[in-house]
Amino acid sequence: MSFSDPRPAKWSAKQLGRIKPLVFVVALYPLLRWIWLGFNDGLGANPPEFLIRSSGIWALVALCLTLAITPLRRLIQQPALVRLRRMLGLFAFFYTVLHLLGWAMWERGWSLASMWDDVVQRTFITIGMLAFVPMVALAITSTTGWMRRLGRYWQALHRSVYAVAALSVWHFWLVRAGKNDFFEPYAYGIALGALLLFRLVHSMRQGTVSGRQ
Amino acid sequence: EPLPATPNPDYWLSNRQTSEKDVTSYNNFYEFGTGKTDPLRHAGSMQTRPWTVTIEGEVVKPRSFDIDDLLKLASIEERIYRLRCVEAWSMVIPWSGYSLSTLLKQVEPTSKAKYVEFVTVVQPEAMPGLNDRIIEWPYVEGLRIDEAMHPLTMLVFGVYGKMLPNQNGAPMRVAIPWKYGFKSGKSIVKIRLRETMPVTSWVGIAPNEYGFYANVNPTVPHPRWSQASERRIGDGFFAPRVDTLMYNGYGDQVASLYAGMDLAKYY
């Protein structure tokens, strides 16, 4: 890129295709780290607690990265970046599923009745579950086939990711509420808020709420 | 540093003891940070000598004790206690020390002494967690006088036959095995006998979640989790949770203290 040409060369789909496996491996880092720590006595005195918390945090990180793709591609004018979005979104789903399985196994002993009790009795579990349900729909309909089948409804459906993000931060905030320890929930809340604000400003500038591009 | 202690057979458990490593590396001591390993990481710079413990308030003979005198006040016993954290994990720990009542009798509590308040040290240079305004420092805990005089309530100077490591509350803490762990104040510098119930740190922050009594009770859930079962630290990756016992299994010794009380109300 030079100053005489302010518009950078556009990355092609093929170039992104080459980056994708690299991003895939990087996104596996949390999982590989847990395995490494597990074999090296690094999960601490309470491995279940560590893994449940860690998977929740990484699910949030992946969700933030997924939602950062659209602002980023506009900012650096690289629309092809969208080709990474589905994979990052599925990683957010993957770490969320691990978070949920950790809870189901270590907190609830695989008992469906006990899980249900937790969901109805505890606000933070209720909110977490409300965040998870739309994620399942988003993950299932993430394929090209489903994009085609749903047509214009696909984007409407996938806008529920904003609700997922808000509920996830709310869930995290409630987890920390009893300990007055809000730094991290605020940090994720501000990050997600900024990403959503970027979209809002963009669509207002476009004079449209379609948000396509 | 070793701390010779004589096993007291009255306080013995056959449960597998939690490893010394887990006991000394997985701690809640918010003055050093909210993470479980923060105390191990940061507590090393806490100064534990010289150390005096001041006893004041509703007592006939208020006075300060040097920690080395407290170590000689009575013979040091080793007692194995269950520790049940309010966060639903538990340990089995060999503490060294003696009953708190031994010390309290020295200062002769007056008839007005209804409660005992424990105040933890504040050392800003050594305690990065003081910046987290989670708690209004110093950390304060308390007991009713009959709870404090109960022989199970222990002044602790050591663990695993050694002097307490800083992260476990050196040089002196209390251990109250039938109550959730947060009741057992660490690194105590002041013991105040009072006529009125102290506002303890966690009650001040979240009275709907943490009560003054904080007796281990599987039938009264915490608002954010059940207290019916617990994870025994060190039991392994796939070990099932353990059922939590009323009064953490010490009911035969302490249930009478709460006769007639609504335990759902006074949690």
List strands and helices in order, with pairings.
The complex is a heterodimer of chains A (213) and B (267).
Chain A: H1 13-27, H2 29-39, H3 47-75, H4 85-107, H5 112-121, H6 123-140, H7 144-150, H8 152-158, H9 161-177, H10 183-205
Helix pairs in contact in A: 3-4, 3-10, 4-6, 5-6, 6-9, 7-8, 9-10
Chain B: E1 6-7, H1 20-25, H2 38-42, E2 52-57, E3 63-66, H3 67-70, E4 77-84, E5 89-99, H4 100-107, E6 115-120, E7 140-144, H5 145-149, E8 154-159, E9 162-163, E10 173-175, E11 188-194, H6 201-205, E12 229-232, E13 242-243, H7 251-254
Parallel strand pairs in B: 1-4, 2-11, 5-12
Antiparallel strand pairs in B: 2-3, 4-5, 5-8, 6-7, 6-11, 8-9, 8-10, 12-13
Gap from first CA to last CA of chain A: 23 Å
Task: Please compute the radius of gyration of chain B using only Cα atoms.
Answer: 17 Å
The largest chain-to-chain contact, stated as pair and per-chain residue counts, equals:
A-B, 22 and 27 residues
Instruction: Tell me about the largest β-sheet of chain B.
Output: 8 strands, mixed
How many discrete domains of chain A?
1
User: So how many helices of chain A?
Assistant: 10
Question: Residue-averaged pLDDT of chain B, rounded?
Answer: 96
Can you write the helix and strand succession of chain A as a string?
A: HHHHHHHHHH
**Residues in β-strands, percent of chain A:** under 5%
Largest sheet of chain A: none
Keywords (chain A): Cell membrane, Electron transport, Flavoprotein, FMN, Heme, Iron, Membrane, Metal-binding, Transmembrane, Transmembrane helix, Transport
Transmembrane segments (chain A): 21-39, 51-72, 84-104, 124-144, 156-173, 185-202
Domain Ferric oxidoreductase (chain A): 56-168
Family (chain A): Belongs to the MsrQ family.
